[in-house]
């Protein structure tokens, strides 16, 4: 157990940072039990915060929570423990534990470039649940406020290959560095990796035409090139061309870019059922009994 942080402090921090975790709550008890209903603990893949009383029963709760995290499950489930049977403890009581799995942020945005548009995108995306990895090759370029934004990490880019290799699978990438050669190297490496959820490139149609020719010569086919959206921020001008009018301010381009990205980054539906099933609720509304296989 991590004694330095209470369950509610850990829950607040993990949800703010968008990290996977489980909240385990003792919801009913009968007979002699280590703790009373309302006791809670928070469980991650590597740590435990607070306690439900210790012993085998608690370790079984932790194991069940981590199994669900590893399987990528979401939502709520109910675990029943006979402290004299399933858990082999001497208390002899019976408890139900509600396990709530929070999978963390399901979307990672890799943003390359800390210029004016990049800064606006990061600030506009702050209320979203996305985790943002922000990259730039220049030193001391990230603003001071970046340290305070949740789910945001800043990295100095060493080279395109190592940077792109560090991204999680199915990340969304936006390329908008200060240097066209850096943009080109990043697009080339992102396409070569092949598992990005989406790739966006800032610039004009003429920039993309130049990039297309270079990427074709580098060995990328039309199917690969079709994965790149360029220009991004289409609302900033007719047909997305920044040279033909429209609002060219960084805020407007960032706003339009995020509007394009939102439907691409939408999490898949997990079904219409919400909450606990009737079968899971039934033990909470009746006197618990110990089944023969628990003894």
From TrEMBL:
<dbReference type="InterPro" id="IPR052698">
    <property type="entry name" value="MoCofactor_Util/Proc"/>
</dbReference>
<feature type="domain" description="XdhC- CoxI">
    <location>
        <begin position="15"/>
        <end position="75"/>
    </location>
</feature>
<dbReference type="InterPro" id="IPR027051">
    <property type="entry name" value="XdhC_Rossmann_dom"/>
</dbReference>
<dbReference type="InterPro" id="IPR014308">
    <property type="entry name" value="Xanthine_DH_XdhC"/>
</dbReference>
<dbReference type="InterPro" id="IPR036291">
    <property type="entry name" value="NAD(P)-bd_dom_sf"/>
</dbReference>
<dbReference type="Pfam" id="PF13478">
    <property type="entry name" value="XdhC_C"/>
</dbReference>
<dbReference type="Pfam" id="PF02625">
    <property type="entry name" value="XdhC_CoxI"/>
</dbReference>
<feature type="domain" description="XdhC Rossmann">
    <location>
        <begin position="109"/>
        <end position="261"/>
    </location>
</feature>
<protein>
    <submittedName>
        <fullName>Xanthine dehydrogenase accessory protein XdhC</fullName>
    </submittedName>
</protein>
<dbReference type="InterPro" id="IPR003777">
    <property type="entry name" value="XdhC_CoxI"/>
</dbReference>
């Amino acid at each position: 157990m991590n004694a330095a942080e209470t369950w509610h402090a850990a829950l607040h921090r993990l949800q703010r940072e968008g990290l996977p975790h489980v909240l385990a709550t003792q919801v009913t008890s009968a007979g002699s039990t280590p703790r009373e209903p309302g006791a809670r603990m928070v469980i991650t893949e590597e740590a435990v915060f607070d306690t439900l009383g210790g012993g085998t029963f608690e370790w079984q709760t932790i194991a069940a929570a981590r199994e669900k995290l590893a399987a990528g499950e979401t939502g709520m489930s109910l675990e029943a423990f006979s402290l004299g049977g399933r858990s082999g403890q001497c208390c002899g009581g019976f408890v139900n534990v509600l396990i709530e799995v929070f999978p963390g942020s399901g979307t990672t945005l890799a943003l390359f470039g800390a210029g004016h548009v990049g800064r606006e995108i990061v600030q506009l995306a702050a209320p979203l649940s996305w985790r943002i990895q922000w990259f730039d090759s220049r030193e001391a370029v990230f603003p001071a406020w970046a340290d305070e934004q949740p789910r945001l990490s800043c990295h100095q880019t060493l080279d395109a290959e190592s940077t792109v290799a560090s991204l999680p699978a199915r990340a969304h990438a936006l390329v908008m560095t200060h240097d066209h050669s850096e943009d080109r190297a990043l697009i080339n490496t992102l396409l070569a990796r092949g598992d990005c959820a989406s790739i966006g490139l800032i610039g004009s149609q003429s920039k993309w035409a130049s990039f297309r020719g270079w990427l074709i010569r580098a060995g990328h086919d039309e199917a690969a090139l079709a994965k790149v959206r360029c220009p991004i921020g289409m609302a900033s001008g007719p047909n997305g061309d920044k040279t033909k009018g429209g609002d060219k301010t960084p805020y407007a381009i960032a706003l339009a870019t995020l509007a394009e990205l939102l439907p691409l980054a939408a999490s898949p539906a997990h079904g219409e059922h919400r909450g606990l099933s009737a079968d899971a609720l039934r033990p909470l509304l009746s006197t618990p009994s110990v089944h023969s296989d628990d003894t």
